Structure prediction request, 1019 residues.
Amino acid sequence: MIELKNIEKYYANKGVKSYILRHVTTSIKQGEFVSIMGPSGAGKSTLLNILGMLEEPTYGQYEFMGEDVVSLNERKRIELYRNHIGFVFQAYHLIDEMTVAENIEAPLLYKKVPGSERRSRIADMLDRFNMVAKSDLFPNQLSGGQQQLVGIARALVAQPSIILADEPTGNLQSAQALQIMELFKKLNEEEGITIVQVTHSEVNAAYGSRILHLLDGVIKEDVTVSQTV
Amino acid sequence: MFKLNLKIILRSIWKNKISSFINVIGLAIGLAACLMLLIYVMYEWNFDKQSKDSANVHVVMTNVLDDKGKIFVTFNGSTTAFAPLIKREIPEVQYISRMDYGNMGLIANGINGFKKKSKFAESDILKMYDYHFISGDPKTALTDPRSVILTESTAKTLFGTTDVLNKTVKYQEKENLKITGVIQDLPENSSNRFDYLMPWSFYEIIDEGAKDLNWSNYSFITLVSLRPDANLDLVNKKIDELVKRNNKQISQPNFLFPLSKMHLYGKFEEGKSVGGDIEQIWLFTALAIGILLIACINFMNMATAKSEKRAKEVGIKKTIGANRRSLIVQFLAESMVLTLISVIIAIVLIESFIPVFNNLLNIEMSIPYFNSYIWLGLLSVVLLTGLIAGSYPAFYLSSFNPTQSLKRNVEGKGFFSFSLRKVLVIGQFCFTIILIISTLVIYKQIQFIKNKPVGFDVNALVEMPQDGQLIEKFELLKTRLLKSGAVTTMYQSSVNLSHHGSNFTGLEWQGMPQPENKVMFNRVGTTYDYISTNGIKLISGRDFNKKYASDSSAVMVSASAVKVMGLKKPVGEIIKMFDANFTIIGVFDDYIWDSPYQSNSPMVVYFNKVGTGAITMRLNASNNLQQNIETITSITKEINPSYPVEIKFMNSIYAEKLTKEKTLGILSNLFGGLAIFISCLGLFGLISYSAEQRTKEFGIRKVLGASVASLMQLLSLSFIKMILIATVLAAPIAYYIMIKWLDNFEFHTTIPWWIIVLSAVGTIAISLLTVSYKAYRTAKSNPINALKYE
Prediction:
């Protein structure tokens, strides 16, 4: 599904190149659950952003579903967002002026899903995340864990093939974090959704099927997790 | 999608109540002020433009030449012989009508008499003005000499109804006139207004001057309607030749001038129109646009300031599949909704304040709801303001890369938009300070003229028109009033103490430098007690006195007249006017009788028993004022029962001379105040935004030990700097403008340095107050609140 070849990212400052990513080559297959780990400044988030086409690599090749996407135009990129990619953020990034239901509905509106189907999908999501009673609340009326659930519901509602999560549990208590990771695992196993997450936590990483260890912009280790947890 | 967007827009407006309020109210006030001014401008602009063919109607003007053949004054008077001649000889003339200037004349239904504005005109006037006839036939309404056309309100005043066709009214106690038509009231903004209109043929019966076809009496107005295809220059050329051919002795050239331009372009220099009130119209238009601009700048500043906060929203929306177009639409719709709300509030504001405004300016205006231009203008203002205000977030923010905006990289500081915002704020305050300085200078000028001595004691001095029986029974009135004790002294005169016109040139004296005098003198005909009543200062000689029989051919002259004539010992000198000799018996000091802004012509006051028109009385100061007036009223009514008694106080007559400048003063006060208010609202909004943006920085600084004062300084300083720059820019501009304005007046005040300092200090003080409230609140807040969010 994802093919990265020799991805480089650096910033040139007064002729000095400071590298964020170097020679990153890897591929992620449909249905994998990948955790990107590494210390602060290792380039984890940059890698995820490049995967999500939020940033462009300075150099290298990136194919998403067999298509070269390094210099994709905005219109096509938005098409990919609408149909294939769901984002989950550490700071949830819900829209404050929208209710829970409206936040979940927003991607469907942009995707121009007809009204009746929108309603049924929202109802489905609310049901699945036990949020029916909260559908009319605003984000600031929810706890962090609940907000992240809404964030995930929003990412899922458009039925993406891949979810990119940037430290999805970074702002949560451990019990809530556990719940989110269980959810990811279930989505991965039961629905076959590809998941790529950035995390600091060994525990979280253990939920996935594969771990990419990043250090100073270079993949140091690429390990497959034995499913014993 | 649209519904949800609208819902979210309304929610975010509600969530940011304060900034929305500042936004909407600021813009609404700005819009209201702008529209109000524009309605006023339209009112002035439409002067004499109501009738269908108003563009073809011209008024005959006369150039008055001095002895060197140079035009020194142009006025709208013409002679009686002019109209018949050009009607016969010039084919381009379609309709022509002679009129008088209009008078206050008594019109009565039985014993119910009222003094109303009368007008005499030839029947062609009904073809030039498309008066709306409620009853009567415009074709025949002015055919019979003894007929009259009433306006609707005159008919209602006299009869209580408009159903008065063929009834009879009495004019000036003497003549019975048949009502041949009732027309709708004339608009306020018309130069030829009347309450009742009578035929010229009737005027010829009752007035010698109107009947006599001559080329010397310029006491009439002639309106000429040209065919639509006529060339005005050509017609004027023909008129010039025609008049010269027919009128060999006196050659005061006539020309036609569009009536619809008279009101706004009525100032003539050397026979050419050089503007007039149009300058005021431009001034008000500029003021209207300026105020709207201030409000729009606020709106845009707030919208752009807030939009930086919304960069995050843009980022989120992009990652869930929003494209640029949908974001642009959303931001534009949002600012349009706000603008629309402002417009609605603005209309409510105008509706509630227009009566006050009308009252202040003494005019009749209303929102012309049925005027499509107003709606078109309003719509374009809404669209334009909404577009400009919304375009920054719409086009700029939507272009961002989502990671950038999510990381909040879109900071305001050092950013293009921020320096643009600074420029806008400086511009805003520049305009405001100019308005404040102008207001102060106008106020000072009005005070200067008000405090300038008029040359006599205006208090306890009253006047009334000398109508009907008061002309013949003046001596009786005088005896009775003096006896009653309400009046200490009084006199009759040909014109009021404060009058306009009554100028003449044919004065001769001994030792004249030229054989023919062209200097305009002003004349007042009166009998006894002139000086003793009005209290004008006598420099030498004496007032008219019954003891001297020779006083029937005596004059008093003003100090400036003595100067013009160059007389060393004026008393005893003999001057000649109207082919009669008069001896100078007294010299009085100049006083203000016409415009208080310039020196008036030299004056001669001559003894003339038939010079009647006004009665001036000095009230007895030892009595109650109310009582005096009541006594005068009852005695006058008894002697002259058919006329209403109209007593006017001299001090209010003199106060009225300042009306135009007072209007300007009121307007600049009002709109200057609004401008300050809107600007400060904007400043408050901006500083709130800036404080919010720097919350974290402030938290850190506080943790590091910064004092409240230093934080306040940090926040306020940049704003205060902007206002200082605005002051430095505005002061010379305002100074220049006001010097130009003051140059319009011969008597004018100066612009002292303290006015500029005062307005600068005042503006800075007000804005400091605005800024420091917010700055203090921010600086005082607990640092942990600021640092928690990250």
Notes: The first strand of chain A starts at residue 2 and ends at 13. The mean pLDDT of chain A is 89. The domain at 2-224 of chain A is CATH 3.40.50.300 (Rossmann fold).
